[in-house]
Every structure is written in structure tokens, then in C-alpha cells.
Specification:
- This protein folds into two domains: about 210 residues; about 260 residues, Nitrilase/N-carbamoyl-D-aminoacid amidohydrolase (4-Layer Sandwich), CATH 3.60.110.10.
- Helices cover about 45% and strands about 15% of the residues.
- Strands 1, 2, 3, 4, 5, 6 and 13 form a seven-stranded mixed β-sheet that branches. A six-stranded mixed β-sheet has the order 7-8-9-10-11-12, with helices on one face.
- It is globular, with a radius of gyration of 24 Å.
- The mean pLDDT is about 90.
- Pathway: Protein modification; lipoprotein biosynthesis (N-acyl transfer).
- Belongs to the CN hydrolase family. Apolipoprotein N-acyltransferase subfamily.
Length: about 500
């Protein structure tokens, strides 16, 4: 059983805030990953011998500090949007505090607390409205030895290992009897993780050469009638430069990628937008994977789409974004909330989610049978969406994002790290195309081969392998989530068979 001294409320509050800041410091762009491990250890210790409202309350305060540090960038949509999101996301940390306060009463707490962390991460990625799994522990591991586990146990397993290392170190501090064994176990976890990066990648048989177009936009036009046209005009202009550079440098392109919202008007239905796309494909001489806003099947709705546009055949295979952002892309309970909260009119037409997985079967001049997987913006935070690409046979992954809203904040840095994590986890090269942020070519080891600068028009050329392997992480990680949930519930049940400790 874990114990700790009793502190005055002010000291406990300061410790809770410090814990939240330590947890957040491991996320991009700070990237101080040892701080996150220390934060998990301090959080676990802080919850010891607390009950009920005290554990929930101090855990909630930890969450407020963590989320304020990491996701306050959403305030660009409005201060109250950030306040609401941070307040809600912190509830999960309150729940975790409540659960941990009971689990630390059991002898196996160093192994049970990490399971609770994973279980709460799983819940936060599902509830409500599909969840928002943005601050998972695994996202802090991209530049430390535990990243080697990503291709084997996935995000779920790596989050468990981060929390396990933290709890083992805490155990070593509070118990002399297990100190040596705990330290040895921590060293072993880190060493094995590093060594796993030496395992050879599956040998590819073919490659594709791609141009990632970053059009850039005039941010002052956002919200004006000219914005939608200027975005596509910029995409056309940069495609002209890309085509010229490709021919000059001898790049034999298979296709070009435009980012999310490169056409802010449906390019299939709108004649002027369609003309711009067709001119672009004609100049490029190869298909363009167009990020577009399209009209939905229901009246006054829209979809965020990726459309494979061939220079001769025109629009072909497409994918519609599945993971939509509530109050950003659609309004839950629209009829009830809109009269009460007129500010929600800024959301515009409701987006409707796509139903298929993000794998499009297409052909290019040199690759007649090509399976391209795509994730659109925030989708890369959701495990099922990423894993479905590999299950569906994707040979390379595209990540298309409209980053204009969040340019200059922490969000683009965090999204770039997520792309790197997904590359390692899936064993695929990830080609990240953004409107005006950090477009990047990322190899299957999660390394950035090349990237653009924010708020600049640019093009990246990349020849990347087509891969067919299915990493163990894709098969195992979903089961680990359920195992963590089940283990946590059983362990909680056991705590209610023990005599409760005094209320504090």
C-alpha cells in the first residue's frame, strides 16, 4: 500500500498544479519526456490515502493544469470554447485520481495504476461524441527509447509502459526492499525499447514519387467571400511551381497531394473550382489527391473529403472524414442548442461523417494498383481510424490537414508528433500535407526526412517505399485497451473488499 504525508490544502494544490505541468511538459513542442514520467509518479503519490471527493478534486486540478498547458490553442476559436474543452477534458483526470486513490491500496499498485491510465485514455478517446484523445502518454515517447515499442504494442501499450516506468521509479523511492529490482526493471524497459529500433523494417518491393503541395493562404481573408477561391488559386500556383521543379530536377511523379480544404467549395459541383483543379492536373500531368469540402447528401450539410482526381478521367475514388470535431465541424443537438447559443452559428453547415475506411484504390502512371491510406487532420489521434488503413491494405499513408486556424500555436507541433508516432506504429511512411504549417515526409522509423516552414508556400518531393506488412501493434493494441479496462474494474472491485483508510 502506498502512503504519503498529510499536507495543508495550499501545498496539495501547488503539488497538483506542478503535477499537471510536468505531465504536459512531455508533449510537443516542449518534448521534455522525463517530466511526464515524473508527473505520472507524482500524480500517483499525490492520490495516496485520499478518498472520494478529495481524490477527484485534486485529480481534476491536475487535469486543468495539464490541459491548459497543452490544448489552450483551441482558444483561437473563442475563449469560452477553450474553457469548456479544458474543463471537460479535466474530468477524466478527476476520474483517474479517484480510481488511483483506491488502486494504491493494493500490493500490485505499480502494475494496476498504469492499467487505469490506459483505461481512462481509452474512455477519453470514445466519450462523448467520439472523444478527444489528444494528450495520451504515448505521444510523449517519439524521441525517447520507449518509441521502439510503438510497432509492437501500439499507443495503448506504450502509454502503459510510460506509466509503469513512473510507478516503478516511485516504488523504488518509497520502498527500500524493491529499490534495486525496480530500477533494474526500468532500465530493462528503456534498453529493450531502444534495441527494438534496430529490428529491420520489412523490405519494400516498389516505390512511389509524390509531390506534397503546401499552398499557404492569406490569413486575413479567413471568413471573407474571397477566401475559398484564393485557397484553390494558391494550390494551383504552387502546383505550377511544383510541376516545373519536378521536370527540371527529373522527378518522375506518380501523384500530387493537396492538403485538407485546398478547395473550400465542392470541386465536383462548382464549375469554377472544378476548372482550377482540372487545370492543375493537366499541368501536373499526374493525378492530384485533392483535399476538399464537398456538399453532403442531406440538405445544408457538408463533408470533408479527399478526392483522387485524374487528369483524364476526372474525379474518382474518394474518402470522407469519419472523426468529426463536435462544435467545430458540427453542432450536437443543433435544434436545441443553436437558439440558446447563437455563437454556434460560426460552425456553419453541419458536417456529416463518412462511413468507409480511408483507403482508396487508385492507379498512377507507374503504379496501376495502388492503395493509398489517408487520415484527415484530427483523425490521426484516433486508433481505429489509423489501424483501419493497415487492415485495408494501405501501402503508404497521407495525412492531410487544414492548419490555418491554429497556425502559430502549439497545435501544429503536436500534430506533427502524432504523424511521427503513427508512422512508427503502422510501419508506414507518412506524407503530411498541410495548408500552411509543417508539411513533412516522415519515414517508417518516425524520423522527419524533410519538412516545410510555417506560413510559407512550398513543395516537398519524396520517393517513398510501398509496404505491405502488418505490425503487431495493429492487431494487439485494441485488445490491450479492453484488457486495461477489465483489469481496472476487477482491481477496483477488490479494493471494496478491504477496510477503507481514513478520509482526508
Amino acid at each position: 500500500m502506498l502512503t504519503r504525508p498529510t499536507f495543508p490544502p495550499l501545498i496539495t494544490a501547488l503539488l497538483a498544479v506542478a503535477t499537471g505541468l510536468l505531465l504536459g511538459a512531455g508533449h510537443a513542442p516542449m518534448g521534455v519526456w522525463p517530466a511526464t514520467i515524473a508527473g505520472v509518479a507524482l500524480f500517483t503519490w499525490l492520490m495516496a490515502e485520499l478518498r472520494g471527493r478529495a481524490a477527484f478534486g485534486w485529480g481534476y486540478l491536475v487535469g486543468l493544469a495539464l490541459n491548459t498547458l497543452t490544448v489552450a490553442w483551441v482558444s483561437v476559436l473563442g475563449v469560452w470554447v477553450a474553457v469548456a474543452l479544458i474543463a471537460f477534458m479535466s474530468l477524466w483526470w478527476g476520474l483517474l485520481g479517484l480510481v488511483v486513490s483506491r488502486l494504491v491500496r493494493l500490493r500490485a499498485w505499480p502494475f494496476l495504476v498504469p492499467a487505469a491510465v490506459v483505461a481512462v485514455e481509452y474512455g477519453s478517446g470514445k466519450i462523448p461524441f467520439g472523444g478527444f484523445p489528444w494528450t495520451r502518454l504515448a505521444f510523449t515517447t517519439i524521441d525517447q527509447p520507449m518509441n521502439g515499442y510503438l510497432s509492437w504494442v501500439g499507443m495503448t501499450g506504450v502509454s502503459y509502459l510510460v506509466a509503469l516506468v513512473a510507478c516503478l521509479l516511485l516504488w523504488a523511492v518509497v520502498s527500500k526492499e524493491v529499490r534495486l529490482r525496480s530500477v533494474i526493471a526500468v532500465v530493462a524497459v528503456l534498453v529493450v525499447g531502444g534495441l527494438l529500433n534496430l529490428v529491420p523494417l520489412a523490405a519494400p518491393e516498389h516505390t512511389v514519387t509524390v509531390a506534397l503541395v503546401q499552398p499557404n493562404v492569406n490569413r486575413a481573408e479567413k471568413g471573407t467571400s474571397s477566401y475559398a477561391r484564393s485557397v484553390t488559386n494558391n494550390a494551383l500556383s504552387e502546383t505550377i511551381f511544383a510541376a516545373a521543379e519536378a521536370r527540371t530536377a527529373g522527378h518522375d511523379l506518380d501523384f500530387v497531394v493537396w492538403p485538407e480544404n485546398a478547395t473550400d467549395i465542392d470541386p465536383v459541383l462548382d464549375a469554377e473550382t472544378r476548372r482550377l483543379v482540372e487545370v492543375s492536373t493537366a499541368i501536373a500531368g499526374v493525378p492530384i489527391f485533392v483535399g476538399a469540402v464537398t456538399d453532403g447528401d442531406l440538405p445544408d450539410t457538408r463533408q470533408t473529403s479527399s478526392i483522387w482526381w485524374d487528369p483524364e478521367a476526372g474525379p474518382g475514388a474518394k474518402y470522407h472524414k469519419r472523426n468529426l470535431v463536435p462544435f467545430g465541424e458540427y453542432i450536437p443537438f443543433r435544434q436545441q442548442l443553436l437558439p440558446v447559443l447563437p455563437i454556434l452559428q460560426q460552425v456553419g453547415r453541419d458536417s456529416i461523417p463518412g462511413e468507409g475506411i480511408g483507403v482508396v484504390e487508385v492507379s498512377s502512371p507507374d503504379q496501376p494498383y495502388l492503395k493509398v491510406g489517408t487520415m484527415i487532420c484530427f483523425e490521426l489521434a484516433y486508433d481505429d481510424t489509423a489501424y483501419d488503413l493497415i487492415r485495408g491494405g494501405a501501402q503508404v499513408i497521407l495525412s492531410q490537414s487544414n492548419t490555418n486556424t491554429y497556425a502559430g500555436t502549439l497545435e501544429p507541433h503536436q500534430q506533427l508528433v502524432m504523424n511521427r508516432v503513427r508512422a512508427m506504429e503502422t510501419g508506414r511512411e507518412v506524407l503530411a500535407a498541410t495548408l500552411n504549417s509543417y508539411s513533412a515526409v516522415i519515414d517508417a522509423r518516425g524520423r522527419i526526412v524533410e519538412q516545410t516552414q510555417e506560413l510559407e508556400a512550398d513543395t516537398l518531393f519524396a520517393t517513398v517505399p510501398l509496404r505491405y506488412n502488418v505490425n503487431l501493434s495493429v492487431r494487439l493494441s485494441p485488445w490491450l485497451s479492453w484488457l486495461a479496462v477489465g483489469t481496472t474494474l476487477v482491481a477496483l472491485g477488490l479494493t471494496y473488499r478491504r477496510k477503507p483508510s481514513p478520509d482526508r
